[in-house]
Design brief:
The chain is α/β, with parallel strands linked by helices. The chain folds into 2 domains: about 190 residues, 3-Layer(aba) Sandwich (Rossmann fold), CATH 3.40.50; about 100 residues, Rossmann fold. Helix content is about 35%, strand content about 15%. It is built from 9 helices and 10 strands. Helix 5 crosses helix 7 and helix 8 packs across helix 9.
Length: about 300
């Protein structure tokens, strides 16, 4: 395949994902307090990470950092790796990814189907272990790799600054009052929130993370114990919300059975936090329109036991 080719037009349809109303999940949700979620699995690669992955690769090409002799290298828990992999497959680039050994079987299969080379790290170290391994690989052969470094790459959050925030405001007709999103690389929360601060400064910003260092919320980081992403802005959130693995998984099951929405654990965590926020706002008698993110589809996690509980 010719390298440096343009992506097919259907692959450029990243973004403009639908906003889904999540009524009926809680008595707190009513005409006064409404909850919506961005269905990011509608992106070509099936997750919110397509936004950052595409931006990172396009800007690397413009800067001359990506080319026929370069291999894209990064650490991932799955979704950003999938984004890199389908984009690079279309462009003719090679991809090497360091991933925790605990990666879900379906996500591993997707990555391998796109031709990505996978290097597994200790499951006990999570994405932090994958980051350390990627840095070692880059240091050993710097001329071979373009280290995309999603946790520190400014194009990660800029993708959401330019697209996600603008879409949300347009879809809510500028009636948005609260934005809720999880922290992994922190790109989605940081980029969307920074643009909202500029365009709609009255909107309240709520970040979400696991409530403990050891958790089952793939893609999210417990910031107090993790390698802090360079793009993370600790002062951006109006409120930092912690969600347990059990709470997030319970919401995943509820969304599937009550709303027909099969979403991943990070989406469950975002909705769990949003429901708590909605309950508080309802008790205060507020009028509110909350938007959160459903980063991916739950099909990628069906091998996990919690679905049967």
């Amino acid at each position: 395949m010719k390298t440096g080719a343009s992506l097919p037009s259907q692959h450029l349809r990243v973004g403009d994902t639908p906003l889904i109303e999540l009524q009926g999940l809680s008595p707190a949700l009513s005409r006064r307090v409404r909850l919506f979620a961005k269905g990011e699995w509608h992106n070509p690669g099936g997750s919110v990470k397509d936004r950052a992955g595409l931006r990172i690769i396009q800007e690397a090409e413009r800067a001359g950092l990506m080319g026929p002799k370069k291999v894209l290298l990064d650490a991932t828990s799955g979704n950003t790796g999938i984004a890199y992999s389908w984009i690079c497959a279309a462009l003719g680039y090679k991809v090497t990814l360091t991933v925790p050994g605990s990666i879900a079987p379906l996500r591993r299969a997707i990555l391998e189907s796109y031709g990505a080379e996978l290097m597994f790290t200790s499951p006990l170290e999570g994405t932090d272990g994958a980051i350390r391994e990627a840095r070692l690989i880059q240091a050993a052969e710097p001329s071979r790799y373009f280290y995309a470094d999603q946790y520190n790459n400014e194009n990660n959050w800029r993708a959401h600054y330019d697209t996600t925030a603008v879409e949300i405001l347009a879809q809510t007709k500028n009636e948005l009052t609260h934005f809720v999103a999880g922290l992994g690389t922190s790109g989605t929360f940081t980029g969307t929130s920074r643009r909202l601060r500029k365009l709609a400064p009255k909107v309240k910003l709520h970040s979400v993370e696991p409530d403990a260092a050891l958790h089952g919320l793939d893609g999210l980081k417990h910031m107090a114990t993790a390698i802090i992403p360079g793009i993370y802005d600790d002062k951006l959130a109006d409120e930092k919300m912690a969600v347990s693995t059990d709470e997030a998984q319970a919401v995943c099951r509820k969304l599937a059975k009550d709303r027909g929405l099969l979403v991943g654990p990070s989406g469950g965590a975002n909705v769990a936090a949003s429901l708590r926020l909605a309950e508080r706002l309802a008790e205060e008698g507020a009028n509110a329109l909350i938007v959160t993110i459903l980063p991916d589809n739950g099909e990628r996690y069906l091998s996990e036991r919690f679905w049967k509980e």
